[in-house]
Amino acid sequence: MTETLSADAPAVTSDPAAETDEQWGLGGFLPYRLSIASNAVSGLIAERYRNRFGLKIAEWRVMAVLGDAQAPAGRTQRELTRATLMDKVAVNRACKMLEQRGLVARAANEADGRSHLLDLTDEGRMVHAEIMPLALATEA
Fold first, then answer.
1. Domain membership flag for residue 15
2. Which CATH number does the domain housing residue 126 bear?
3. Which of 22-31, 70-79, 118-127 holds the top average pLDDT?
4. How many CA atoms lie within 13 A of 24 on its CB side?
5. pLDDT at position 15, please?
6. Exposure string over 90-110, b if 16+ CB within 10 A, otherwise e
7. Of 123, 87, 90, nearest to 104 (Cα)?
8. What is the residue-wise DSSP string for 26-48?
9. R_g over Cα of the chain
């Protein structure tokens, strides 16, 4: 059942079942399309980093935040969770793996005795410097 409000106003459909897939399909839903594009790019990047550097995407995200020249040195896991938009378990796991590989070091947080500060080691900075051109080339 369709009723017209005026000659200029679009018709209002009161029967949701009458709507077409074209009107409500995911292909036109911007958040869905952005998610698909993001996952495709992340997958491509993850494969490159895994093959060349042995890093998973979560590990690279942590390294990218820690290597950000505009950010303060030493970040807590809570700060890394916020900066990467990853859950705390994924950040914790990534930090542990990076620490085991000698790419990240953990130090006491004098401002908060309950947490630690994480930062790239010299080796971590070298890997970061090697990856950044690849990351920027993928973006181009």
1. no
2. 1.10.10.10
3. 118-127
4. 6
5. 55
6. bbebbbebbeebebbbbeeee
7. 123
8. GGG-HHHHHHHHHHHHHHHHHHH
9. 23
Element (H, E) at 50: helix 30-53
Q: What is the pTM of this model?
A: 0.72
Spell out the residues 6+ positions from residue 129 whose beta carbon is closer than 8 angstroms to its own: 67
Positive or negative torsion for Cα 75, 76, 77, 78? negative
In a domain, 1, yes or no: no
| Angstrom distance (rounded) from CA 16 to CA 114 | 54
Q: Find the domain containing 79 and state its range.
A: 24-139
Task: List pLDDT tens digits, range 26-58.
Answer: 778 888 888 888 888 778 877 888 888 999 989
